Amino acid sequence: MLLWILLAALTAVVVTLVLRPLTLGAGEVRDASSADIAVYKDQLAEIDTDLDRGLINADEAKSARAELSRRLLKRAEADNAHANHGGSGDSEVTPRLTGGMSRDVLGMALGLALPMIAIAVYLNIGSPGLPAQPHAERITVAPENASADELIAKVEAQLRQNPEDGRGWEVLAPVYRRFERYGEAANAYAQAIRLLGETPERLAGFAQSDIVAQNGLVSERARLAYQRLLNIRPNSPEALYWLAQAKEQDGNMSGALAQYQRMLDGAPKDAAWRSSVEERVAALSGLAQAKSSAQQTPEAAADNSSGGSVPAPGPTAEDVAAASEMSAEDRGQFINQMVNRLATRLKENGNDAGGWKRLIRAYMVMGRESDAKQALRDARKNFARSERMQMEFDELAKGLGLDS
Hints:
Layout: H1 2-19, H2 26-52, H3 58-86, H4 103-125, H5 135-138, H6 148-161, H7 166-178, H8 182-196, H9 200-213, H10 220-232, H11 237-249, H12 253-265, H13 274-291, H14 298-304, H15 317-322, H16 328-348, H17 353-365, H18 369-382, H19 387-400
Helix pairs in contact: 1-4, 2-3, 6-7, 7-8, 8-9, 9-10, 10-11, 11-12, 12-13, 13-14, 14-16, 16-17, 17-18, 17-19
């Protein structure tokens, strides 16, 4: 009822504002004309005053009076034309329109017609019979009729009221992942693990979401989750693979190689992931061979360090030192090829933390301190969202004596 009262009041205000110009009578027009004439008289008096005070001469006063007289005559002609159009007698205050209808009658007709037209349009295209639906009822839409966003909002509202609802977090986590909200998915899995305990599905879901949210970086949280998963499922290919990736990112190539080999030893020959793991084993084995490649040509040694398409290692300080038995010219070519290849690869894909560390160390061994500092800045920029990697880069810089 209150809504209808407010709408009626609003309609009355709008109609009043719209019809007000039609209610202005000729009397108001004549009042405006009288005011203008009074202004002209005041201006004539000012001309006489200025003449007496010597501010203007007689010719200027005569010219000013003539101009005001012309304006006054023009105004009088306009008033006469208006009076002749609206009616002949001064007693007729309200002019008549064509057909004899007065402004008052027209205003009353429009005042009644506008609300009636609005009501007719609303009844035709609106929904006056629709019952009110408070916010509490709107968020309780039947699941089969709700959109995905509405369902997520409903679960989030429930979790805000009861944040200890582990089942709610477990339901919400995979939904977040499906909509690529990986940071929120990782948090939801973490809450489910805290409240409901660890299961292989929850641990894997948390680790996967966290890795994607970190742009492929295996964080310490994800690494611990996969280690716990291995305690439950000792031969989990997923856990073994990402733990090997973590070792690569940390620069532990021998540990990563052993982890990959463990996967291959226990895997069926038709495993879908077998070929990708074999590529990583070949890449890391090539790096190991490069460390003892003094008898190889520089080109062959450099090729062995190229690795696969996933984040691959580059030369370590030991790799650079391994070329010491070569001639000075070959050694310089060998070192530059490996370092430049790694630097190019990191420009294309900067998510290889271990590669950045090796590039920085290699630059320092070569005496290229300015390049090492620039590589350090680039590495920090690529891992700006990872506090753990920022700390590791800081420790590396401190150990190498880099100022920035």
